[in-house]
Design brief:
Blueprint: E1 3-5, E2 12-14, H1 24-32, H2 35-52, H3 59-73
Antiparallel strand pairs: 1-2
Helix pairs in contact: 2-3
C-alpha cells in the first residue's frame, strides 16, 4: 500500500489495501481515499441502504450510491 493524501480527511495515510471497483471510479478511490475514510463510507452506505431501502443490484440505486460516495469521500 502506498501513502496517499486522502481527499476526505486531508491526511497522508495508507491507501486502500484492495481497490473495490475495477473502473475509473476504483482508480480514484485508490488514489484519493484512506482506509479509515473508506470504512466510514461503508457505514454511511449501509445507513443509506437501510433508510431508503436501496438494492445495490438495482442500476438506479447503484448510481445513487455511487454519487453519494463521491460526495462523501470528496472525490474529484
Amino acid at each position: 500500500m502506498a501513502k496517499i493524501k486522502c481527499a476526505r480527511c486531508g491526511q497522508e495515510k495508507e491507501g486502500l489495501a484492495e481497490i473495490p471497483f475495477k473502473n475509473e471510479l476504483g482508480e480514484k478511490l485508490g488514489e484519493q481515499t484512506c482506509q479509515d475514510c473508506w470504512q466510514a463510507w461503508v457505514g454511511q452506505q449501509l445507513m443509506l441502504m437501510n433508510e431508503y431501502r436501496l438494492d445495490p443490484m438495482n442500476e438506479e440505486h447503484s448510481k445513487f450510491l455511487d454519487e453519494e460516495m463521491k460526495k462523501f469521500l470528496n472525490l474529484t
